[in-house]
Design goal:
Blueprint lengths: L1 H13 L3 E3 L5 E2 L5 E2 L1 E3 L8 H18 L5 E5 L4 H11 L3 E4 L12 E2 L7 E9 L3 H13 L2 E10 L3 H10 L3 E6 H10 L8 H9 L10
Helix pairs in contact: 1-6, 2-3
Length: 213
């Protein structure tokens, strides 16, 4: 698994799906300052990389969640990849909205899942885990069993790890923050002296202000 995390980290950096700017941080929608910006949707634009992500997510599901009877993607980032995974596995697919629609049928879950079905959730990116776990809760309230979640990338925030533990959801990802930083140093994308700054941010992202340690 570590080999896949390393390979995928390389690929994310190659297509600039991940950008690292420890000295010129980004500002997230939440208002947090961040030395990293991740846009895994870029992987959909590269056929070979798109296929790599699809197949490796399938391998995770087949190895760790072989009992899965359906796939659910988290809107909007994981809809496309979730559908590709479900198609490859020959399983039903649905996706979960952040909240129920305010018109029509008022659906939050789009598609059909049999009540009591064992469902694996496909996610794009894990930050704090809040939106991902809201999707899990919506599925549980719908009446299905969430057997686990697979995702392309996680920042590995302690708050997210605790949230997934409390929710009883096993999370597996293709790569993570540590592997991206390691590959970025190896290739000269960032300097070795940037690593303490990057490590400090991940431990307390909400309070991090940027700059050198």
């Amino acid at each position: 698994m570590d080999t896949i995390k390393k390979i995928f980290a390389q690929k994310l950096l190659e297509v600039r799906a991940v950008k690292l700017q420890p000295q010129e941080p980004f500002t997230w929608a939440s208002g947090w300052k961040s030395p990293i910006y991740t846009d895994n949707r870029k992987t959909l634009s590269f056929p070979r990389l798109r296929s790599f992500v699809k197949l490796e997510l399938c391998h995770l599901i087949q190895e760790h969640f072989p009992e899965a009877e359906a796939v659910a993607g988290v809107a909007t980032g994981a809809i496309a990849q979730g559908a590709l995974v479900a198609d490859e596995l020959g399983l039903p697919f649905s996706y979960v909205r952040p909240k129920p629609k305010d018109h029509g049928m008022g659906n939050q879950i789009e598609g059909e899942i049999a009540k009591g079905a064992k469902v694996v959730v496909v996610e794009d990116l894990i930050s704090t885990g809040g939106s991902s776990l809201k999707a899990v809760e919506a599925l549980r309230q719908y009446g299905v069993e969430v057997v686990g979640m697979v995702a392309s990338f996680t920042y590995g925030f302690p708050v997210a790890e605790e949230a997934f533990c409390q929710a009883g959801v096993r999370l597996l990802t293709l790569s993570d923050y540590e592997h991206v930083v390691a590959e970025a140093v190896k290739t000269g994308y960032i300097k070795p002296e940037d690593q303490p700054v990057l490590a400090e941010w991940r431990q307390n992202p909400g309070e991090w202000k940027g700059g050198a340690v």
